[in-house]
Amino acid sequence: MKKHFTQITLLSGLLVLATTSGRAADSTQGAIDFRESVMTTFKWYVQPMGAMTKGKIPFDAAWFKSRADGLASATRLDVSEGFPQGSVGESEAKPEIWDNWDDFLSKYQRLQDEAIKLQQVAATGDEAAMKEQFGKTAQACGGCHKKFRNKK
Amino acid sequence: MKKHFTQITLLSGLLVLATTSGRAADSTQGAIDFRESVMTTFKWYVQPMGAMTKGKIPFDAAWFKSRADGLASATRLDVSEGFPQGSVGESEAKPEIWDNWDDFLSKYQRLQDEAIKLQQVAATGDEAAMKEQFGKTAQACGGCHKKFRNKK
What's the number of domains chain A is made of? Predict the structure, then answer.
């Protein structure tokens, strides 16, 4: 009887453990999906501005401005929520993120600041200034990716 | 010689066509990625509010407010940009979207309006009002999904 009880207790314990790990895995994947989605929205706005800055497509001040507005809105989302401790998973995140959390946050803050400036500059319609500020914004993306992303 | 020229012309034509279709496919997939990413950010904010409203997790006014703030920011993104004409692709979008474009836009506008109201109500900390306004916001999601999404 005691053995039977122990077996049930052990089985329940394993079930609880399995459920808890399952939840943790779900939650980690949810966070990864969130952060990758936020980055995908950035890409949507950044790519046309990059193509215009490099002259791959004609410069269009109104289109550029609308992309800068979109990027400024997207960078209001707090992407750091999508990086719970150690959540590398199947993603491109480097473990260095959690050893340098303050630096990681400040690099995201820099992107937010540069994106707001880009939105302001884009409202003026000054092509040279827009391209220059786009360069600084792209550098903010790159500065973080270089240190914290394993590009696959 | 004429035959040879015709063959070259035909081949060039096919190459141009292939390249153009390739670009269109890239661009369509980019739009699908964008819209699906925007929806994933909505889910990130909506799920915890839903769980609190249904009593699956304890109500936490500050956490609810931060989710409502996040959703209001995310719904500033113009998801309709991610639905170029006929871009069903491998997605869950129904072709009815483009036959009812104004209705589709007004349904998204409703979500944006409800999300702003939710943010305002969440700032008051009134649990009952927050749960009620969350219900209206979730209805705005559901109203669009029911008509325009093939849930897979």
Answer: 1
